[in-house]
Design brief:
The protein has 36 helices and 8 strands. By secondary structure, the protein is mainly alpha-helical. A hairpin with a 5-residue loop joins strand 5 and strand 6. The site of zinc ion has 8 residues, from helix 8. InterPro entries: RNaseH-like_sf, ZnF_BED_domain_contain.
Amino acid sequence: MPLSESAHGALLVARDAFIEQQDYGIPDFKSVVETHTVEGTPERAAWDAHILALTDALEDDKPFPEAPGSTATAASGKKKKKSSPAAAEESEQQKRHTRIRFQRKLDLEGAPAAGEVGPGRTNKQQVGRKRDTLVDDLIIEEKEVSGKDKAITAVYCIACDHRTSHRNPARIKEHALQCPDVATIFPTLFAKLVQTNADRGNGVVPPPKVRTKQKEGIVPGNSLPAMDVDQPLPDASSSTVKEYFTPLKMTDARQALLDLALFQLVICAALPFSFVENPWLINFLLIAAPNYVTPDRSAFFIRLITEQLSAFMLALQRFLSQRVHLTLSFDGWSSRAHDEIYTFHTTLPSRRSFLTAGHVFKGVSVTAAALFDVVEKRIFSMFAAVSYSAVVGDGAANVRAGKKLISEKYIWIINIYDPCHNLNLFLKDLGKIFKAELGIISAISNFFGQSNLGTAQLAFERARQGINTGMKSASETRFGTTYIQALAVKLCMPALVTCVAAGTIIFATKATKRLIPYLTPGATHYGFLAQLDCMVKLFEAGANGITALEGQNTTCADVFYVWVTIAWHLNKLLGDLNAGLVSYRDKVIEVYNARFDQMMTESSHGIFLFAYFLHPLYFQHGGLKLVMPALKEGEKFDLEKYPELFKTFRNSARAILKGEQTRTGKKSKSDADRLTDQLVRWAVGLPPFHQRVYAVAGDSPLEYWKGLQRDSNADVLATVAIIVFSIMPSELCDERTASLLGWINAARRSSMTPEHLIATAQLSQWYKFGLTEGNYTHSAAANVKVSDVGSSSTVASTPSLLDLLNDDNVAPQDVDREALEQALFNQPDPYDLAETERVIRSSNRWAVEDFVRLDSESLKKLIAPEKKKDADVVALSQAPTAPAAATDEDWEVDD
Ligand SMILES: [Zn+2]
């Protein structure tokens, strides 16, 4: 029996209320459905299904499904509205929106009045429920005709024209919070939005009136007695204290507190949003907090995410506003649904990082200009550009150009090319020398990635032979892991050979058969082993260099030091006749020099070399080729007499000081002159640098320079050095977040919107770690471990997250096995070596030798301290030395 028109009307009203009112909720909607439809009829079923479909649409931000029709209304029909040509209508609409936008800006932001103003607000207050004026300010409403000629109210973002087909306040607020245009065109409105949300989140404003219906729990299917949730609660007079505190009445405040606790549980434990509707949770809540009204997930999460994100942004804004010399870094990431997402982090001088924003690029190509725009609109609108002193990103063309735009407009922001990416490319270049061997390594590793049985057999044999390391998988983006993989194959080789000979591991298929000669004693096997050994030796310094730079405390000086260490190690290795690598020498130097030049030139002001020069430890022991003419106290400085290297440093220092003076708005020519004077003092060793007393162990160069801020012979240089050592030359925080996002995305919530994904990551970081400086221990020098030449390499233990990811790679059974095997075991370029294809200039001299003497004795002590000398390095640095020009052996004054 079809529904009466009045029943259908009541259902439509309930439907609209459900969509518009975040607090109306499923229970209210359901009770209306139960009142107006009869159980067991198609109408009841249709409306029940409609509730679920609406909930999904709200959750996934999809268009709302049409309401089930009643025969009565369908029969009566509606007058067909004539639609004008779509294009003309659209441009008319755009003009109208522009006028409204202009008028709204006048009303809300007090923009200067112009001659022509359009009509005022078009919002007519609807009868009935009170509407939120903040929401009205954020939108333009349009009466439109839907596909089925139904009149609907479409809603457009006041700033960017983003369209949704219904007036849903929670959705509108959520969009506005992440809309770059609202933040920039309507700053006052945006600030009001953030503040209002945050006030709700912080409990300043009571939460909206809560739902009145409770959900039903579930009756356990086992033999436990069904729980009697209606059992009367104890009263104060007859109960224990514990029972007394069971709330008899659920206050708004307590409901809000429980909502927040539940929200935090879901966010921090990375549970799917549907968890809050899990009947077993509801059961638990009915017992733990009988009067708590359990939420409907869609309204619940949109409201709390918006409120909590606003509270977080305000708290972060307050926290960062008291700090300077922050580092901004960003990196691209793509979700399982192929949304292009960029994460933006802010790193403090203490190296604590915060996921500051995430931006989803929808239907826009991510150009340098687009990235620059997002940085200005979403970061600098909320967190002042003058708080930042560096911007870091990888080598992608749009990222490089985007960073350039930033450092050109904000000249105090130093442009940094992420050194780990650079080292990664260096290793790839080296890998090309061993392309054939890498193909075999990849195939062998993939075999064990696929074969549980093979892995078990190998593990058994390894245990028998006492080999601790198992096979590893490699990450596509991090070539350093290839070193770990190659090393694993090398170490496992004796066990592999035994297993193949004994027939416990069988390579029988077409694609894997070709591996047998490499794993069976013979010419191919021994040739492969020899090449494998060379490769592992050549990769080691670079791979460990990446590991060293991935530490939380990396400074710009450490980046240069890592390149020094690599050259030092490779030079020794390639010159050692026993190591058998002499024939690779020219090729390796070529590769090194090309990437070294990139490290030197891609970042602003030669920052890495300059930092090395300003680092108390590296300056003294790093083998720097700086030969300064002697200069006594009071003697006049003459730039002409100073070496080119010193002039380079002076240019770096002046460029940074100029940026800093622009940042603070305090131009001073005399400070620029004093800077040169203080640089000479530093280089030559005049007071206050005549006694080079550094508490090296556990002290950071940043702390060292902070101690010199008030010394009139060091203050300007200290200002520059503090910037150099405050900035974080790595976007590793973005990589960590990307793997966190990937995990959340893959593990439980593949249908989650990318905006919610980012909010989840931001909020869980906030809840778990708060807004603090962090507490990272500083070490004096980057520690790049290298093995002794000739000895068998040792494995630097690295966390093997990759192993965890293996489960994702398990191949389904019904695929073309042979094609899959070809792909796994016979890839022409498994490590994407072609990425680095280019012309490399020829040389047989290490480029780093322009600046550093690789045969310096003190450098040797720094890089490869003999065992008992570990303490000496510290003692040496702590001991006061005489003025530099007189006896400082570290400068190699003699040449
Ligand atoms: Zn917008």
